[in-house]
Amino acid sequence: MAINKESITNQVYNMIKESIINQELELGQKINTREIAEKNGISIMPVRDALLKLVNQGYIINRPRVGFFVRSFSDEEMYEIVEVRKMYEFYSLENHFDNIDRVKLKDLYAYFEIDVKSPGDFFNIYDTQLHTIIVEASGNNFLIERYKKLIDYSSLLFSCLNNQRYKESNEEHIEIIESVISNRKDKAIKILRKHLEKVKIDKNLLNK
Ligand code: NI
After folding, report:
1. pLDDT tens digits, residue range 103-114?
2. CA of 114 to the centre of ligand 1 (A)
3. 3-state class of 61 per DSSP?
4. Coil, strand or helix: which one is 60?
5. How far is the CA of 35 from the centre of ligand 1 (A)?
6. Residue 7 Cα, ligand 1 centroid: separation in angstroms?
7. How far, in Å, from the CA of 63 to the mean position of ligand 1?
């Protein structure tokens, strides 16, 4: 039945995405389609469907006749992603500061207080949400859609490279939230700048 097949595909999709974010699958690593199918007692078809969905979203690369690989990024690509993120985020913070959804931020704040279980959780859920809330303040749907795609790459990438930094990063997020809630725009901009600059420094980890 179509509904069941769809749900198996979704489960496999979530499983593979989590494995990438939690680094069980490394950047550039080949994905063993047959092994995933056998391990989970399912056919190759839903695994392929899940992988194709991930290809579509840019997490995975499909090399015809060679196989599926976790997407890897060059130094230049990482630099470019961060630069574009800055354009979106500073634009939104500077021009639409008053529109930032304080209610959503307060909800998120409560979550930040709880111990985050893994770097994967952190980047996949909290980090992405906070930065997206800032960009959503722009009210520009075209911009928001593009940003969401970008932050998806970005969280994948940072969870793989920055997992030592996530506690420090978390403190910066809390500072950003507090600055917005207390309407201190200049402080919020300053901390966001510091926060995104550090991403650049951490790209050195790629060369190790
Ligand atoms: Ni962040």
Report:
1. 999 988 877 666
2. 17
3. strand
4. strand
5. 34
6. 31
7. 32
CA distances 141 to 41, 43, 145, Å, are: 41, 39, 6
How far does the centroid of ligand 1 lie from the alpha carbon of residue 169, in Å?
Answer: 6
How far apart, in whole angstroms, are the C-alpha atoms of residue 20 and residue 18? 5
Entry pTM: 0.75
- Please name which of 88, 128, 82 lies closest in space to residue 108, comparing C-alpha atoms: 128
**Ligand 1 midpoint to CA 55 (Å):** 25
CA of 131 to the centre of ligand 1 (A): 6
> Distance from the CA of 103 to the center of ligand 1, in angstroms?
19
Strand partners, 139: none
Chain position carrying tokens 């979704």: 10
Q: If you measure from the C-alpha of residue 156 to the centroid of ligand 1, how many angstroms do you get, rounded to a whole number?
A: 12
Q: Give the separation between CA 73 and CA 205, rounded to whole angstroms.
A: 12
Are the beta carbons of 193 and 94 closer than 8 angstroms?
A: no
Residue 78 token pair:
């990482």
Q: At what angle do helices 75-95 and 141-161 cross, to 10 degrees?
A: 130
Per-residue pLDDT tens digits for 115-164: 556 655 666 667 888 999 999 999 999 999 999 888 877 766 666 555 56
